Amino acid sequence: MKPRILVISSANIDFVQNVTHLPKVGETVVETRTYGYIPGGKGANSAITFSRLGGDTVFCAKVGRDDNGARLKRLYGDEGIDTRYIYENRYAPTGLASVIVEENGDNRIIVYPGANNTMTADDVEEAFNCMPDGVFIHFEIPDEAIYAAADFAAAKCIPLFIDAGPVRPSLDIEKIRKAEIISPNEAECEALTGIYPDSVEECLRAAISLSNMADFKYVVLKIGRRGAFIYDRKNYFLFNPPKVKAVDTTAAGDIFTAAMSYAYMQKGDIGEAVRFANLAASLSVTREGASSSIPTLRDVKAFAKQVKEVGR
Ligand code: RIB
Question: Residue 153: which of 171, 169, 170, 134 has the closest Cα?
């Protein structure tokens, strides 16, 4: 059976520039590498991941009543996503992210949230009418909407999956009382716990600290090229990703958390879910852009086979 996942999160258009070097203060760099306007937003990247992996995906998001909003809504429909709860705000533009990608694939992102910032608890409540099997959120929508998603999920006993990005200083994490999995990257982990997870000891310290903040069954730290660190309140495990040549890391975290949550919803095995997510995210960094880099289930299966053969 296909699990129905409700993604309550953000939708953006990404203005992406590929650069050979970053400008210094006051410097103008003439850059002849490519640029593009690519659908992105942490929520949309994860919703498309669920759908391409085979999930029955419902996306709750807010866009502006403008060309970008209409383009995004069309794209989600074409991806097989249920767009009933994509709301339009006539006073705020669709979210826009400026994404700078360096030659080694590293990215820097500045987000103008626009309509994303107008999502309310009522919008969230309405979306729960779709009767999901799981709820997935990021922190790229207002605190009120995040708390509402967590409260409704808890009240209806629906498992909640949290990608803790981006860093959201106003959010009180303890108000999200319960989740199946919470998954921050290194910067988000430091912002939440004050601990930068740059060694196994620091990963463990950070994960324990985070798991003490609320009833989180699993803490999964996304630690970049080192892969993922799982903590289940008793034991910890480190899962290295397959080695690939990265061209663009944008959205790799969104894809990782969605792929992990999807696999976990199906089999309930966190180790297997993280292994699957490492494959999906590693494959995505070999491709350019956010939504444009998301693999299908068939891609991930083929890549798994390839990795196994290389490892022999
Ligand atoms: O995680 C990558 C995403 O962050 C981009 O697509 C951008 O829109 C921002 O939301």
Answer: 134
Q: Ligand 1 pocket test: which of 49, 63, 106, 111 has the largest number of ligand atoms within 8 Å of its C-beta?
A: 111
Residues 276, 259: Cα–Cα separation, whole Å: 7
User: Which residue's CA is minimally distant from atom 2 of ligand 1?
Assistant: 251
Lowest mean pLDDT of 159-168, 194-203, 215-224, 301-310, name the range. Answer: 301-310
What digits encode the pLDDT tens for the residues 205-234? 999 999 999 999 999 999 998 999 999 999
Question: Which residue out of 38, 96, 109 has the highest number of ligand 1 atoms within 8 Å of its CB and is therefore the one to mutate?
Answer: 109
Exposure of 125 in the CB half-sphere (CA atoms within 13 A): 5
Spatial distance between the Cα atoms of 161 and 261, rounded to a whole number of angstroms: 7
Can you give the pTM of this predicted structure?
0.96
- Distance, CA of 55 to CA of 7 (rounded, Å): 11
